[in-house]
Amino acid sequence: MLPLMNTFRRVPFSPSFFKFAAIPRRGYAQAAQKNEKLILSMALPYRTVFDKVPVTQVDLPTEDGEMGVLKDHVPMVQCLRPGVIQITDESNAVSKYFVSGGFAVQQPSNELSVTSPEAFKLEDFSSSVVTQLLEKYRAEAASSDEKVAAEASIRVGVLETLSGALK
Amino acid sequence: MAFAWKKNFSYSKYASICSQTVRQALKPEIRSDLKGSNNVEFVYAKWKNGTQEPTQTYQSSDAEQQK
Predict the structure, then answer these.
(1) Pairing between strand A111-115 and A38-43?
(2) Do A79 and A116 reside in the same domain of the chain?
(3) What does the pLDDT profile of chain A (167 residues) look like in tens digits?
(4) Residues of chain A positioned with their CB less than 8 A from the CB of B15
(5) Is omega for the bond preceding A3 within 30 degrees of 0, making it cis?
(6) Total structural domains within chain B
(7) How far off is chain B from A101, nearest CA to CA, in Å?
(8) Would you say residue B67 lies in a domain?
(9) Residue B51 within a domain
(10) In CA terms, which of A4, A54, A95, A138 is 20 to 30 Å from A16?
């Protein structure tokens, strides 16, 4: 009863002072409905990988460490490291994607939204290419030019994580 | 260490370095499917004292490697 009492307010219906129009009274936003299951949406700038798919568990490589998200996880915003996202769906099938970074946002409505510049399944990578690139960038990381070395060491970090995931 | 890239790079630069590296590590057949979807290419001109300097082109380094 109480929420409905103030739903509408009467406003003079111009030009008359005696006629009134009932317009909805503005109130606070309602909390979103909480989903029963963890709903995953994972998107890249150019492709949607998952679109509101109910899943059981999502393992994320965040800057705060590896974390597993189940349903009813506390709402959070996490910055992702380059690493493997492992998704366990409702039939207990596991899919793994290597992401180059991005963000993961857990909403109070049990929606987990993962965004990343790049994400590929582990089968899409080539171990031999990774080894070659590692050689190249490790050499650059030893360079005396700070900028070159700093950039190369980031690449080496990504490639080392990737080669660990591919084993 | 968390956010180690903050020392040397902006997030934007760090994100592009990581995503370029990931793309480079793909199998060649998958890579050709992408066809430069993440390339950035634009023409710009700086202004000085009310006059426009000659236009210059920027192309992200990925573009060359994707050929």
Answers:
(1) parallel
(2) yes
(3) 555 666 777 887 777 778 887 777 777 777 668 899 999 999 999 899 999 999 999 999 999 999 999 999 999 999 999 999 999 999 999 999 999 999 999 999 999 999 999 999 999 999 999 999 999 999 999 988 888 999 999 999 999 999 999 99
(4) 100-102, 117
(5) no
(6) 1
(7) 7
(8) no
(9) yes
(10) A4
Residue pair A40/A49 in contact (Cβ under 8 Å)? The answer is no
- For residue A74, being part of any structural domain is answered with yes
Integer Cα distance of A138 and A158 in angstroms: 12
Domain count for chain A = 2
* pLDDT of res. B66: 47
Which domain, by its residues, includes A136? Answer: 126-166
Using an 8 Å CB-CB cutoff, list chain B residues near A120.
Answer: 22, 26, 30
Interface test with B, best of A120, A136, A148, A153 (most B CBs within 10 A): A120
Q: How many residues would you count in chain B?
A: 67
Look up residue A137 and give its two tokens.
């960038």
What's the pTM? 0.78
Q: Which domain holds residue B39?
A: 11-59
Question: Which among B1, B20, B22, B33 is the top mutation candidate for probing chain A, defined by the most A β-carbons within 10 Å of its own β-carbon?
Answer: B22
Mark whether A45 and A102 lie in a shared domain.
yes
